[in-house]
Structures are given as C-alpha cells and as structure tokens.
Amino acid sequence: MSVVLGLLLLLLGLICVILLFLWPINVAKKRQLEENIINVIIVLCITSLFLFGISWLVALIMAYVWPTKAEMETRRAQEREFVGGKDQEARDIDKLTQLADLYKQGLITREEFDAKKKQLLG
Question: Which burial class, exposed, middle or buried, applies to 40 when counting CB atoms under 10 A from its CB (0-12, 13-18, 19+)?
Fold first, then answer.
C-alpha cells in the first residue's frame, strides 16, 4: 500500500513540475505574443533544466511583460507615422514655412502659394 501511495505522490509531483515548467509558455500563447518571442520563451524554459531554473524565471517575466502582437502592431504603425523625428503635422508646418519663405523672396506667386497651402491643409 505504501509503495502505491509513494508512486502516486511521485506521479503527482512530476505532473506539478511539468505544469510549472510549461507555465511561461502557456502564458505567452494565451497573451498571443509574437511567434519568435514564444520560441525564445520555450528555449529559456528548456535551458532552465540546466541552469537550475534561473532562465525559467526570466521566461516567466517575459511572458507577462512582453508586448502582445496587437501592441507591437500599434507601435509599428506609430513609428511609420513618425518619420524623420517628426509627425505628419510637423512636416506640413515645415513645408508651409518653406512656402512662405519662397513667396516672401518672390520665387513663387501668390496663386502658387495659395494652391500649395490648400493642398497641404487638405
């Protein structure tokens, strides 16, 4: 009877260790992180078997803290809008300033200035 109980406790302990081992991977998949980040977390979990669990802790933190796919897409879209250190509105203001300078210097006519200004302001 005690042998059976010992085997059941060993099996229960093994199941708990496996679930604990897979915890960061499951969290990363549920949070829908990018595939390459999930792969990094998997590698960290595997290496934790050899590094006494240190990299497992890093994997767990990454799984909870790393931005999701949707957050990354939002950031990428913002970066595409923010080109050359300025957003679109700042670039339009720079263009208007340059047009005003050209008009003041007499290099373009009032009609050309108004047409470009109307085009920039939409």
Answer: middle
Q: Three-class SS of residue 83?
A: strand
| Structure token digits, residue 98 | 């340059």
Higher pLDDT, 92 or 65: 65
> How many CB atoms neighbour CB 41 within 10 A?
26
CA pseudo-torsion sign 13, 54, 37, 39:
negative
87 phi and psi angles, rounded to 5 deg: -85, 175
SS3 content of the chain, % helix, strand, coil (to 5): 80, 0, 20
pLDDT digits (tens, 9 = 90+) for 45-88: 999 888 888 899 999 999 999 999 889 888 888 777 666 556 67
Residues 26 and 74 in one domain: yes
Instruction: In whole angstroms, give the CA distance from residue 61 to residue 31.
Output: 13
Q: Match 């290496």 to its residue by tokens.
A: 47
Domain membership flag for residue 64: yes
Domain that holds residue 32: 22-80
